[in-house]
Amino acid sequence: MPTSTNLHPTLAGVDGCKAGWIAVHREADAAPSVSVFPSFQALLDALPDATIAVDMPIGLPEFSRKGGRGPEALVRRQLGARQSSVFAIPSRAALYADTSDFTTIEAWYAAHRRASAVAMETSDPPRGVSIQAFGIFSKIREIDQLLIARPELRVRVFESHPEVAFCRLNGGAAMVLPKKIKGAVNPAGMEERKALLCRHGYEKAFLDQAPPRGAASDDFLDAAAMMLIAGRIARGEARPSPDPPLLDRFGIPVAIWA
């Protein structure tokens, strides 16, 4: 179980966003700050000692089975109506089927079709790739490549999930209201989550500020929740699903922490 010998570790909660990665981070006992980084490497450079909880799949399957890698099936049952926010991760081969930088929408859709074809061949039952999942493939690969190349990062970069985090922070009860409805932010759902975050120490004024350019308001709240999970990890209070974590073929832990 990860623990910190530092009683006041640097913490960072991270989510992907349009501009790259949004991080809500805190040094020692200082007030939290929010920043956007163009790459995960830039984030690591800026926060070299931080315990990081990130809303992004870590540890990839060679073959995808019904329900996902293992963590997904375990956490969905906790989330009730919010379980659709947890989607299955396709195989490593599907994630790396096309790593191009897309210059046209046609190229993007063609790459999606290639990834789906590989996913169908490496899953049981055969399953393609959703547009939502394909949209974050490049970010999944970004972290995956770093954790393969730098194994020492595996003890301070952890996968979490916002709705699992909110559920854990809410005493095991999932959020009642959706964060989004038909792709648009749901103000009532956002306020429900802000109230919970404030009960865990955030100032309402901090959460009410406009997110940095290139990040959405829900990305900001998700990153704020992730920072609380980073604190739980650093204090040895967080638990992985599954417990103990699985390992992918590179030895990268596979678990959702909260």
Key terms:
258 residues, disordered N terminus, globular, two-stranded parallel sheet, alpha/beta, five-stranded mixed β-sheet
Largest sheet: 5 strands, mixed
Write down the secondary-structure element order: EEEHEEHHHEHHEHEEHHHEE
Determine the mean pLDDT. 92
As a whole number of angstroms, the C-alpha radius of gyration is 18 Å
Counting H and I runs of at least 4 residues, what is the number of helices? 10
Silhouette: globular
Q: Structural class, please?
A: alpha/beta
Strand order of the largest sheet: 3-2-1-4-7
Count of individual beta strands: 11
- Terminal CA distance reads 13 Å
Low-confidence stretches: 1-5
User: Helical proportion?
Assistant: 25-40%
**Which band does the percent of strand residues land in?**
15-25%
Structure description:
It is a single chain. The chain has 258 residues and is of the alpha/beta class. Helix content is 38%, strand content 19%. The protein contains 10 helices and 11 strands. It has helices at residues 40-46, 71-79, 92-95, 105-121, 131-134, 137-149, 162-169, 187-199, 204-208, 217-234; strands at residues 11-17, 20-26, 33-37, 51-55, 64-65, 123-124, 157-159, 180-181, 184-185, 240-247, 253-257. It has a 5-stranded mixed beta sheet with strand order 3-2-1-4-7. The chain has a two-stranded parallel sheet with strand order 5-6. A hairpin with a 5-residue loop joins β10 (240-247) and β11. The radius of gyration is 18 Å and the shape is globular. The model is unreliable at 1-5 (pLDDT under 50).
